[in-house]
Design brief:
The complex is a heterodimer of chains A (287) and B (322). Chain A is mainly α. Chain A has eleven helices and two strands; from the N terminus they run ααααββααααααα. Chain A has one domain. A two-stranded antiparallel ribbon of chain A has the order 1-2. Chain B has one domain: ABC transporter involved in vitamin B12 uptake, BtuC, CATH 1.10.3470. In chain B, α5 packs antiparallel against α10 and α7 packs antiparallel against α10. Chain B is mostly helical and 322 residues long. Chain B contains 14 helices and two strands; from the N terminus they run ααααααββαααααααα. The mean pLDDT of chain B is 90. Helices cover 71% and strands 1% of the residues of chain B. Classes of the chains: A mainly alpha (287), B mainly alpha (322). Chains A and B meet through α4, α9 and α11 of A and α6, α11 and α13 of B.
């Protein structure tokens, strides 16, 4: 039973990364009509930003949680301003190709300087150790990742669905021209939205740094799994992305316990099953 | 909305003649390679990738479907051919057929699944399916995991052509490539190809005219996947191994890059693109990971400034379809 709970926890942690990343993809897709292939590379940059903040600047994990998403978010906004915005009006597929190119560049540069092996990032002192819950031993850091991701996801949901800023955002997703006519600066909103989506990816990177080590290719395979998550959940609903992300993480964790050989493939197999039964995705409208 | 291949010109008799002339020029130039002192291994490798890129282009350039998992057909055909040649000791022609059959079956299954969604979702689904296959091949015993299938015997094609001689192998690969290329050319210019283009341009209108567009897209997917498998089976004889790199997503990305550089939806573009990218990898092999960075930069530059690709730009300049 101990092992089952441990795998469930690992599943929840992976699920929180899936949720944070697919949430960012959905927000970006809604506003920019681009599937951000660079999301995995930006997630990796978040982890590296935390690593450098600690080892070069001596800045702690807690500040990195705030600063790394801002740094990577600014990098993302520069990308949007210098490249992505020129794709407006072109076929969606060009966005996929452009961001794939950006991902190759970013990952290639980091691989050149850091090789393919991992750099260690220590768990902050306050979150070291563990708790005995009676039925299992819970490492505090892992519990923290799950709780904090959940809070951030729900916060983003609240921001988009319940605030005035979110209302502008949803309106601009539906009809940017009309929203502009009301005097709202839509291009700036697009840039900030991209920054927000990228920031969420970088935040996931910081959270994963102490667990998964900091590696240049840490996001390369992850982004493909997240794509499958997005296909399963559909990108129509924010809450849908969050729930699908966590649920798939848990299912993956359970698979690791009951049939470890399939743990790499279970998300893809589920994607196939969902496509056969309900091609629009679980929460999706037709694309 | 600007579609991916907005500038494609209608095929006129004059364009058909231009294309046939170019085809003959290409065939003659390629046939002369063994006499020119160019390293034939390099050209053979490029020819296999050129055929793969042409098959990929059939789907994106004429069907408007961007597959981000085309390496799975090449890799699957490669593994199956290699297994047939080495373990079952089949002659080369049957080995190729086994590879093509495997790619055919795989493209029926994956096509049935992925054709259910369009546009961006289609790309993500094909990518995810190829990653699924990658993990299966990583664990399956017959692929030998990280090592791959190595030391594949080349044998005698039809009992007479000794494929271990580089010149003979070169001409066999060349004939295979030209046959595949002509088949794709024929498909594009058939009534089926015309319907496919109309679906790419305006799917709702094609549906309203009574075409079952899903069936056309499915058939295009199966044709493209099977031809990609043919390229993979040929590559087994050139490389004499089948490994995981041929199934990896980065290989699928390279195929996309080749076609993009040469020109999406052009007939000769994928061939030019494949030679450019393979030559680049050859010359820059010493630069390690910088090759990835350069490939990424080419993606970015192409998408931002050079969307028609090499052949597309030339065709646009002369107002011809190439």
């Amino acid at each position: 039973m101990q092992a089952l709970y441990a795998q469930l926890l690992v599943g929840l942690i992976n699920g929180s990364f899936y949720a944070l990343l697919s949430l960012g993809l959905a927000v970006i897709f809604g506003m920019l009509n681009i599937i951000n292939f660079a999301h995995g590379a930006l997630y990796m940059m978040g982890a590296f930003a935390a690593y450098f903040l600690l080892n070069v600047g001596g800045i702690s994990y807690w500040w990195a949680l705030l600063l790394a998403p801002i740094i990577v978010g600014i990098f993302g906004m520069i990308l949007e301003r210098t490249m992505l915005k020129f794709l407006t009006g072109l076929d969606h597929l060009y966005g996929l190709l452009l961001t794939f190119g950006i991902a190759l560049i970013v990952q290639g540069v980091f691989q050149n300087y850091f090789g393919s092996s991992g750099l260690p990032y220590a768990i902050p002192d306050q979150l070291k150790g563990g708790m005995n819950l009676g039925f299992m031993f819970l490492p505090i850091y892992r519990g923290w990742v799950v709780v904090f991701s959940l809070v951030v996801c729900l916060g983003t949901w609240f921001l988009i669905e319940k605030t005035r800023l979110g209302a502008y955002l949803r309106a601009a997703t539906e009809n940017p021209t009309l929203v502009r006519a009301f005097g709202i600066n839509v291009p700036r909103m697009i840039t900030l939205t991209y920054g927000l989506g990228v920031g969420l990816a970088a935040l996931a990177g910081v959270l994963s740094a102490p667990i998964n080590q900091v590696r240049p290719l840490m996001g390369a395979d992850l982004i493909i799994v997240v794509f499958a998550v997005v296909v399963i959940g559909g990108m129509g609903s924010i809450m849908g992305s969050i729930i699908t992300g966590f649920a798939l993480g848990v299912i993956e964790g359970l698979t690791k316990y009951f049939y470890p050989e399939a743990s790499n493939t279970v998300v893809f197999v589920l994607m196939v099953l969902v496509l056969l039964v309900k091609p629009t995705g679980l929460t999706g409208r037709a694309a | 909305m600007t579609a991916l291949t907005d500038d494609t010109l209608p095929v006129t008799p004059r364009a058909m003649r231009d294309e046939m002339v170019l085809f003959v020029v290409m065939a003659v130039l390629l046939a002369a390679v063994p006499f020119s002192g160019i390293y034939p291994f390099f050209v053979m490798q490029a020819l296999c990738f050129a055929l793969l890129a042409c098959a990929f282009n059939l789907l994106i350039g004429y069907g408007g479907l961007l597959s981000f998992g085309h390496a799975m057909f090449m890799g699957t055909a490669g593994y199956c051919s290699a297994h047939a040649l080495k373990v079952w000791a089949l002659p080369p022609e049957l080995g190729v057929l086994v590879g093509i059959a495997a790619a055919f079956v795989l493209s029926i299954i994956t096509g049935y699944i992925s054709i259910r969604r369009q546009g961006i979702y289609f790309s993500m689904i094909t990518l995810a399916l190829s990653q699924l296959l990658y993990f299966i091949y990583l664990q399956a015993p017959f692929t030998h995991g990280e090592d791959g299938i190595q030391g594949i015997p080349q044998g005698h094609m039809f009992g007479v052509l000794d494929l271990s001689k580089p010149t003979v192998l070169y001409y066999v690969v060349l004939v295979g490539f030209l046959a595949g290329f002509l088949l794709i050319y024929r498909i594009i210019n058939s009534p089926f190809g015309e319907v496919l283009k109309s679906i790419r341009e305006n799917e709702p209108r094609a549906i309203s005219l009574g075409y079952r567009t899903d069936q056309y897209k499915f058939l295009a997917f199966v044709l493209s996947g099977t031809l990609a498998g043919f390229a993979g089976a040929l590559k087994v004889f050139v490389a004499q191994n089948a490994s995981l790199t041929d199934v990896h997503w980065s290989m699928s990305g390279e195929v996309v890059l080749m076609t993009l550089v040469g020109g999406l939806g052009t007939i000769f573009g994928p061939v030019v693109g494949a030679f450019v990218i393979i030559a680049m990898q050859q010359y820059l092999a010493g630069f390690g990971q910088w090759v990835t960075v350069i490939q990424g930069s080419i993606f970015v530059i192409c998408v931002l400034t050079f969307r028609r690709g090499v052949i597309g730009e030339i065709a646009h300049y002369f107002r011809r379809s190439l």
